[in-house]
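Lecture 7 notes: from sequence to structure.

We start with a single chain of 286 residues. Read the sequence below before looking at the structure.
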Amino acid sequence: MSYTESSPIVVGIGEILFDCLPDGKRLGGAPFNFSRFAQHCGMTAVPVSAVGEDADGAQVKELLRRMDITSRLVVRTTEAPTGLVNVELGEGGVPRYAIAEPAAWDFLRPCTDLQTISRKAAAVCFGTLAQRNAVSRQTIREFVNSLRPDCMRILDLNLRAPFYDREVIEESLKRCSILKVSAEEMPEMLRLLELDESRWMENLLRAYRLQAIVFTRGEDGATFFDRHRRFDVPAANFGPVRNTVGCGDAFTAAFVASRLRGEGYREAMTTAAQMAGKVAAGLIAK
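Now the structure, written as tokens:
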């Protein structure tokens, strides 16, 4: 890939893995999901991760090829096997995760292609899970530090116990321009940062010089907050919820794609809610 495509280049950096669901094994990981949904929205998706020199790693590369998503920055490593996560679906399709350790994505290392893409990316999404290991943590931080000033830097917290702490959250907040956090993650984030729930958005925005906060609340919709406005958008209902795996990533991808197309924040939030609703109802393949 020459990275000269006419559509904006959108990067998801971090874990790529197989979700082991009750109905079978499925390619996943928040950065991959974000990349795939961004490509669905018309962006040029570039997932950045590592897989093992094993059969699962070969399958990841083949699946990306079939999806017409570049795997140039999904590197092979002998340091650990391709990541696996056992997923159990609870009430309302809400997932519970058991994440294998170590995994290949713990050993994401810098490379020339990563430097190249940092100069061309229009938006990058990263999270905390892929920073559980010092190797990938350093690579992700250096990559985000090297982005162009106008690149949209989205932090999707993706808190998965026990793979996070205050330092990882704070250092990630210092590097992002937009924080995306869910209602499930918000109390734990505030506990670790020692922030009161009252006026938490305003306090976070000021403390870490964020451009905006996107707060997703499942069936209760989502809230947008920046220095100039705060507004809510309702959840989009497209039928019974099959499961919610990947819905947050779909929301983030659609929000980013809308903004890169020049749409306003309210329109981007509405588009994102519709995308998440379609994924939850099984109208968009995961």
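The chain has a mean pLDDT of 94. Keep this in mind for problem set 3.
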